[in-house]
Structure formats: C-alpha cells, structure tokens
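Query structure, 150 tokens:
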C-alpha cells in the first residue's frame, strides 16, 4: 500500500473517531441550547476554523471565492453537512450515540454504494459485488440491532 494511501486511511479512521465524539457532544449541546441553535453555533465554529485553515495554508481565500463560480448543485455539499450536524444534535439523546453513528454509517455506505455503482457526480464507476452488498446489509442489520436496549 502506498504511503499516501496509508495516511488517507489513518485520517479516515481518526475522522471516524472524531465523528462519534462529535455525535455525543452535539447531542449534549443540542439538549443544552436547542438543536437548531447548536447546529448554527457548530456551523459558525466550522466556518471560522475552515477560513483560518485556508488562510494559513493558502494565504488567500481566492479558492473559497471560486466556489461562487462553481455549479450551484455542488453547493448541496454544504446543505448535506448542515443536515448531518442537525441529525447529530438531535439523535444521540433520543436513540444513543452508538445507534446514531450506526445509522449514519449505514446510510453513508448505502448511498456511497449507489454513487459508486452509477458513477454519480462524475466519479468513477465501481461495481457492486455480492461481498459489498453483504457488507451493506450486515451493517444495516447491525445498526438496527443497536436500537435494542436491555
């Protein structure tokens, strides 16, 4: 495996750990100040960190401004982010962090398989093997099982 691939895999694993922590924290934050308010606050923090990062790394915001010239359908990524953060602020206190993350991952994997299969959004087409389908089904079943509370 190439060094860049190893680093990418590690970043994804750490992001997965961060996602679970984020779900727990956003759930508590949503309970404390309100779900919509927590989403708004988290989005402001995200924006500030993102702008500080782009200025530190690129020394310009021209790339961000270039986003205004991108096709508007690409802006849906921001809408998807807001919806994910909303779910993270709403769900953990109601269904638990494990179930929240399990369902998010199951939904992610299902949609990712559809995107790969059909090459949506201009991405490479990647077929669905029986093993991949089984993995998606098992993750879905596992997510559903986390709803059970002894």
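Result returned for the query:
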């Amino acid at each position: 495996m190439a060094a860049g691939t190893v680093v990418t895999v590690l970043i994804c694993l750490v992001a997965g750990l961060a996602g679970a922590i984020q779900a727990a924290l956003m759930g508590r934050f949503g309970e404390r100040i309100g779900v919509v308010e927590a989403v708004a606050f988290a989005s402001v923090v995200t924006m500030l960190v993102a702008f500080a990062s782009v200025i530190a790394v690129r020394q310009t915001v021209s790339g961000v401004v270039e986003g205004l010239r991108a096709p508007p359908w690409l802006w849906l990524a921001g809408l998807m982010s807001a919806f994910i953060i909303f779910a993270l602020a709403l769900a953990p206190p109601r269904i638990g962090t494990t179930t929240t993350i399990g369902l998010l991952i199951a939904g992610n994997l299902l949609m990712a398989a559809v995107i790969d299969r059909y090459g949506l959004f201009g991405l490479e087409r990647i077929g669905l093997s029986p093993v991949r389908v089984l993995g998606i089904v098992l993750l879905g079943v596992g997510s559903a099982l986390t709803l059970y509370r002894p």
